[in-house]
Specification:
The complex is a heterodimer of chains A (about 500) and B (about 800). Helix content of chain A is about 55%, strand content about 0%. The longest helix of chain A is centred in the C-terminal third of the chain and has 31 residues. With about 500 residues, chain A is an all-alpha fold. Chain A folds into two domains: about 170 residues, AhpD-like; about 200 residues, no CATH class. Chain A contains 20 helices and four strands. The N terminus of chain B is likely disordered. Helix content of chain B is about 35%, strand content about 25%. Chain B has four domains: about 325 residues, YVTN repeat-like/Quinoprotein amine dehydrogenase (Methylamine Dehydrogenase, Chain H, 7 Propeller); about 35 residues, no CATH class; about 130 residues, no CATH class; about 80 residues, no CATH class. With about 800 residues, chain B is an alpha+beta fold. Chain B contains 24 helices and 33 strands. In chain B, the strands form nine sheets. Chain B has a four-stranded antiparallel sheet, with no helix packed on it. A four-stranded antiparallel sheet of chain B has the order 2-3-4-5, with no helix packed on it. The chains are: A mainly alpha (about 500), B alpha+beta (about 800). The interface between A and B is medium-sized, with 28 and 37 residues. Chain B: It catalyses: S-ubiquitinyl-[E2 ubiquitin-conjugating enzyme]-L-cysteine + [acceptor protein]-L-lysine = [E2 ubiquitin-conjugating enzyme]-L-cysteine + N(6)-ubiquitinyl-[acceptor protein]-L-lysine.
């Protein structure tokens, strides 16, 4: 009974919010239900993800005991079973750790008050215009007693949170620019200053939601039914994927059909997998023989770094319409800028000098006990997760491929591993895959179904979700490393 | 002196000299290593690789090993080690996975000797064999350890750590073939260099990565390990299972650990993050470092004792780009700053006191205070001549115990357990609590409870049986007039009396006078009572008690138990005199005297002449009829609660607060309430009265308090079969798919409370077992054990 009331409240709140956020574009399109005075929400009928056919995704009710327990935990912690969970359950081992961490960050003991946590989540998700996460957390924010006024924009929030805006911006798009001055500015702001523990909590939340936004777009998570855009009785408004976009926009139904039926190039994509495996074998074998010189190795990293900025999809320049979510950011123009564009030189970040295991972990655990442990576990699981399969092949050692993906993402953020030959990346990751990775990690709001479909065509959806897990964890670690290094520098 | 000479001989006749000094490097250091002649040190880092000679007054750069125009990753060193047999031989571990050896004897400028590129990932550690000239060991991030013979081009053998990253490798100093390796997952392995197929022994030493280890230079088989979990552990490896001998808890993750030469129990540590100091610990005293070096401004990355037989020179390199020589005598000693005395109160009023022995010895000459020193106990640590801080370490502990019964805290426990705080009407609660208090001999408290009942329960609610009872009792006390006293008259009397009392409370000293005088006049029996009680404590109780005694629940019961307690008898007459002035003029006369004696204005007006007390009666009638608002007393009650709390009896304050609930809550500010609650809960928990404390938490209305029992509500259970934590559900193990605890009676899974016999470990549902034990005393599982459940 209590749950039901809570749900009603949340629902009412979400309605209230949608009132606030009413979509101008399709504001008139109320359904016929309204004439009867009753409005029945109906799901949009794509399943939890717009990219993955519904039948591929596990149906609630068919799960095994372990998954069921996970669902139960998730429901108990969040009061809902959201689409992210439904997609992540492809990898229950990871999901467990993910849920545990998220639960701890949002609900358990921590230096920040509950409504701050959700508000920071909203701020972070809004950087990527991720209406899905924004909606979820707007509800949660109101539910834990947050002031609805704050939702009208960052300038209505307390000065303390406003101060965080800058860090949020830099962290989301150009984390390598974070300096100890940023940290100092937050910690020494008279009565609005953050404590170190609060700051670490905030940083972890920010990075968590930046990367979760990547996942949301990367896997095309559909809006929740109770959120705007998740049901049809009123036109969804906040969502970027406003219903009018979905039906007449670039996500055309035809395209979906073509692709789901699209075994047009079976032989082609089959060849793709074979080629990839062959390359992996070659690399494995010739590693000892061919020894690249030092300069060669160094330049390979630079090349990869430089190249990563060109791998943008063609619709790069398309301007995303600024919607109401954007009230959370002041500077829409501030986006991902590539490392070496505009002659901006940033020294390469060497993992051997500041890595998560040795340094980051210790710092986080010192300032926000137990979270370091949880995040560490999550990184480990994400990095080491494997089923030793590749598309239709079994018993494949995928560690090389996973490492290439992980290091490629870090490379885009200017993080270099001394002991890695960046030539491998070029061998293993083809262009369409790089485009996808780059888009998901840097500008997730621009991911399209076409991009999702065009890489690794023969691979299973679960494997693509696996790739997404690697992407978001690598991204989170990269952001954390920069932020924590700045904090360390501030402290010394 | 003897020690000094030993050092000198060990050094071959020349003592080391020098001072605390540091020099600036061009770049952050990652590791340092000392030449065996103790006169040179090598510093290695990402962009530095230099040899410095250690002069008397300063470091002098001798050689830069980074030659060549192009910086190579092979020169980006994660670790460096200098051979302890050969002064010309060095090895470095590069961040790109290359192991390089260097021969200083080479005539050319480039001293690089050999390059091993077998590791695929960063090499974390290199280590030379302590006695063999050509054997080098490396441990890498890729999970392999490799043993190289420098006379050959590639590795002799490879040891696999099952793809766990290797953080440190160290050859045993005593055992020729043994080496230890530490891993990122917290394991430590022991290998025989001749058997690369599998490790000799493996155990989990830390939670999280083990960053470093060091073999004890003298004690065979002692291995110190340091990990990310901020601990340094000393293991004895000679026994069948590695046994943890000592554990030092530091404040940050431990990056390096090095045993101090010539000091069996000392080791130096530095940390990976946050903390920049170097500590030297005595492992037997793991809480305060024996010495501390605070020179560095950034984390220390490498430490080395300058000479294997000299305990006073420590060298260190740091991320702040400096190289330091620390002299032990210049170290700061946190012990000196520590407070050497300790004082602690026990729960039951015992007192323990520890101090430097000299202090205690001086004091023991003094005459002890009479009565306070029950069983002084003294512990004295044996002096260890080898220990540099012997003087501080010897201390004496004295324990003073309370006299049994005298001021013990038994009453607190009893009261806490027996008080009723909720679930019944207010009147009953008050009566019950008053009874409890009285039975424990706390009359003042008992009377307070009674009074509270009178204040807050409208008279209609007062059970007439009680009333009659007390009335009957009253008459037995020799006041026949009481019989004519009816309920209606009494109630108004009540109101006036309490008000009177307030007046009295305001002028307490007066009341004392009044009471004592009244007592003297009316009753001779209680002189002893007066004398035996502490006046201040007595005051309030007496003042409040006077009028309340009429309503005492069953004073007869109280009397036999406490024959010396005569206050009720005394109070009764007083009380009735006031109310029943008309029937008993002769008593009134007595009574009338007292106000004059006291001189209290309030009392005088209310009590003095006969007619004025009539008028008072009528006034109180009026007051009552207009339903005297309970607010009327709230100030008084508030003061009373404050009084109790200040006396240290938060129990009373909180109990009253809970029992009265809304009636008083608004008068006391939130913060004070919270303060009382927390103090009381803290006390209860110290006495392990968990149930009571939880009840109090539950009944509290303060948000901050009631959320107390909503924090950390998770109970973690381990599977009894595989010993792993059962994360998802408490009764079934995910790994071995077994149900954890079966009920021995009904053979179903116990999902709630499980009770088991500690003798045979069988058990089951609480109800089932209780039921079973009614019929049988044997174990329900049929194991034949005579089970005991308490």
């Amino acid at each position: 009974m209590r749950l039901a009331t809570a749900a009603n409240e949340a629902y009412a709140a979400s309605l209230a919010v949608s009132e606030l956020l009413g979509c101008k574009q399709c504001g008139g399109g109320h359904g016929p239900d309204e004439e009867l005075g009753i409005r029945i929400p109906r799901p949009l009928g794509h399943g939890p993800s717009r990219f993955i056919p519904e039948k591929e995704i596990l149906q609630v009710g068919n799960e095994d005991a372990q998954m069921h327990a996970l669902f139960a935990d998730s429901f108990a912690a969040l009061g809902r079973l959201d689409n992210i969970t439904l997609v992540m359950v492809f990898h229950p081992q990871y999901l467990e750790s993910f849920l545990k961490t998220q639960h701890y960050l949002l609900q358990m003991d921590g230096p920040l008050p509950l409504h701050y946590r959700h508000y920071i989540g909203i701020m972070a998700a809004a950087r990527h215009q991720c209406s899905y996460l924004v909606n979820l957390h707007v509800n949660d924010f109101l539910h834990v007693g947050g002031d609805p006024k704050w939702l009208n924009g960052l300038e209505n929030a307390p000065q303390k949170l406003q101060n965080l805006g800058e860090l949020n911006k830099v962290l989301a798009h150009r984390p390598w620019l974070i300096t100890k001055e940023h940290i100092e500015g937050l910690l020494k702001a008279e009565e609005h200053s953050w404590s170190l523990a609060e700051l670490v909590h905030a940083v972890v939340l920010l990075t968590h939601y930046h990367s979760l936004a990547s996942f949301t777009f990367g896997c095309g998570i559909s809006p929740e039914i109770h959120c705007d855009g998740g049901h049809t009785f009123r036109p969804p408004s906040v969502s970027n994927y406003c219903i009018c976009d979905i039906t007449n926009g670039n996500h055309s139904v035809d395209e979906m059909q073509v692709n789901s039926a699209g075994n047009v190039s079976v032989s082609d994509s089959f060849f793709e997998v074979e080629a990839l495996m062959e390359k992996m074998r070659q690399l494995q074998e010739c590693r000892d023989e061919e020894e690249a010189s030092q300069e060669e190795m160094a330049s390979r990293f630079e090349i990869e770094k430089r190249e990563s900025m060109f791998v943008f999809s063609s619709d790069d320049e398309e301007v995303t319409p600024a919607r109401d979510v954007s009230r959370h950011f002041e500077d829409t123009s501030y986006g991902y800028k590539d490392f070496s564009r505009h002659g901006m030189h940033v020294p390469t970040f060497r993992v051997q000098d500041y890595c998560w295991e040795d340094h980051g972990y210790s710092l986080v655990n010192r300032l926000y006990p137990d979270v370091g442990q949880l995040i560490d576990e999550k990184f480990h699981i994400a990095y080491n997760l494997t089923y030793n399969t590749m598309a239709m092949h079994k018993d494949v050692d995928t560690s090389m491929l996973r490492r290439a993906i992980w290091n490629y993402i870090h490379c885009m953020f200017g993080i270099r591993y001394d002991d890695y030959d960046y030539g491998e990346i070029n061998q293993l990751l083809d262009r369409s895959f790089k485009v996808y990775i780059k888009t998901v990690v840097c500008t997730p709001e621009k991911v399209t179904k076409r991009m999702y479909d065009s890489f690794w065509r023969q691979f299973k959806h679960s494997e693509k979700v696996h790739v997404n897990l690697l992407l978001i964890e690598a991204r989170m670690q990269a952001e954390l490393l920069y932020a924590l290094r700045a904090i360390t520098r501030y402290m010394t | 002196m003897e020690k000094m000479s030993r050092v000198t001989t060990a050094l071959g006749g020349s003592t080391l000299t020098g001072r605390t000094m540091h020099c600036h490097l061009d770049a952050p250091a990652n590791a340092i290593s000392v030449c065996r002649d103790a006169a040179q040190v090598v510093v290695a880092g990402r962009s530095i690789f230099k040899i410095y000679s250690i002069e008397e007054e300063q470091f002098v750069e001798k050689l830069n090993l980074r030659v060549g125009r192009k910086p190579s990753l092979n020169l980006s060193c994660a670790d460096v080690v200098w051979h302890q047999m050969d002064e010309n031989l060095l090895a470095t571990a590069a961040t790109n996975g290359v192991v390089v050896t260097w021969n200083l004897g080479r005539p050319s400028r480039n001293k690089q000797d050999q390059l091993f590129t077998e590791h695929k990932r960063t090499v974390n550690k290199v280590c030379f064999h302590p006695t063999e000239a050509h054997v080098l060991l490396s441990g890498s991030q890729d999970g392999f350890m490799k043993c190289f013979d420098l006379r050959r081009k590639d590795s002799v053998s490879t040891f696999s750590g099952q793809s766990e990253s290797v953080r440190d490798v160290q050859f045993s100093i005593r055992d020729y073939f043994t080496f230890a390796s530490t891993f990122e997952n917290g394991n430590v392995q022991l290998w025989d260099i001749r058997r690369p197929d599998r490790c000799e022994r493996m155990f989990t030493a830390h939670n999280g990565p083990v960053f470093c280890c060091d073999w004890h230079p003298e004690d065979r088989g002692w291995l110190a390990t340091g990990g990310r979990d901020k601990m340094v552990k000393v293991w004895d490896m000679t026994t069948h299972r590695a046994k943890e001998m000592h554990c030092v808890q530091t404040i940050a993750s431990v990056a390096r650990v090095k045993w101090r030469p010539e000091c069996r129990h000392h080791l130096a540590t530095c940390s990976m993050m946050v903390d920049h100091n170097i500590y030297v610990w005595d492992v037997r005293r793991p809480f305060v470092p024996a010495a501390m070096f605070e020179e560095h401004r950034d984390v220390t990355t490498g430490i080395a004792w300058r000479h294997p037989h000299d305990p006073s020179f420590l060298l260190s390199g740091s991320k702040d780009s400096s190289l330091c020589q620390h002299l032990f005598r210049d170290a700061s000693q946190p012990v000196e700053r520590a407070n050497p005395e300790g004082l602690c109160y026990g729960l039951f009023g015992d007192l323990a006191f520890a101090a430097k022995e000299s202090l205690v010895a001086a004091e023991s000459g003094r005459k002890p205070y009479p009565g306070d020193r029950r069983h002084p106990m003294f512990f004295k640590r044996k002096l260890d001549p080898a220990e540099p801080f012997a003087g501080l370490a010897s201390s004496a502990l004295s324990v003073f115990e309370m006299e049994p019964g005298g001021g013990g805290m038994g009453w607190f426990v009893d009261t806490a357990e027996r008080y009723a705080l909720t679930g019944r009407p207010l009147a009953e609660l008050c009566d019950h609590n008053a009874k409890v208090a009285r039975e424990l001999g706390r009359n003042q408290v008992a009377q307070t409870w009674t009074m509270l009942r009178i204040i807050y329960c409208s008279p209609g609610l007062v059970p007439s049986a009680n009333l009659n009872h007390s009335v009957g009792k009253g008459s037995s006390c020799g006041l026949p007039l009481m019989n004519s006293f009816n309920l209606k008259d009494m109630a108004p009397g009540l109101g006036s009396e309490t008000r009177l009392d307030r007046g009295k409370g305001d002028a307490r000293s007066d009341t004392a006078l009044l009471d004592s005088s009244a007592t003297l006049i009316t009753n001779e029996d209680n002189e002893e009572t007066e004398g035996s009680d502490v006046p201040t404590d007595y005051l309030l109780g007496d003042a409040e008690g006077e009028e309340d005694e009429l309503y005492l629940l069953d004073p007869e019961h109280a009397h036999p138990e406490e024959p010396e307690y005569v206050l009720p008898q005394e109070a009764f007459p007083l009380r009735h005199e006031i109310v029943d002035t008309p029937p008993g003029p002769e008593h009134l006369q007595d009574k009338a005297d007292s106000p004059h004696v006291s001189g209290s204005e309030a009392d005088a007006t209310s009590l003095a002449p006969m007619d004025s007390s009539f008028s008072l009666l009528s006034v109180s009638h009026a007051l009552y009829d207009s339903r005297l608002p309970p607010d009327f007393f709230s100030v008084l009650v508030r003061d009373m609660l404050r009084f109790y709390a200040e006396q240290g009896d938060v129990q009373m304050a909180v109990s009253v607060l809970i029992v009265l609930g809304e009636r008083v809550r608004k008068d006391i500010d939130e913060q004070t309430q919270e303060h009382w609650y927390t103090s009381y809960i803290d006390l209860l928990q110290r006495f392990r009265l968990w149930n009571v404390s939880n009840e109090v938490v539950k009944l509290s209305t303060s948000r901050a308090i009631s959320c107390l029992n909503q924090a950390s509500t998770t109970l973690h259970v381990n599977c009894s079969h595989c010993k792993r934590p059962m994360s998802s559900r408490g009764w079934v193990c995910d790994r071995c798919h077994r149900c954890a605890s079966m009920c021995a009676v009904c053979h179903h899974v116990v999902k709630g409370l499980f009770v088991w016999c500690q003798g045979c470990s069988h058990g089951g549902h609480l109800q089932h077992i209780m039921k079973w034990l009614e019929g049988s005393s044997h174990c329900p599982a049929g194991c034949g054990h005579l089970c005991e459940y308490s």
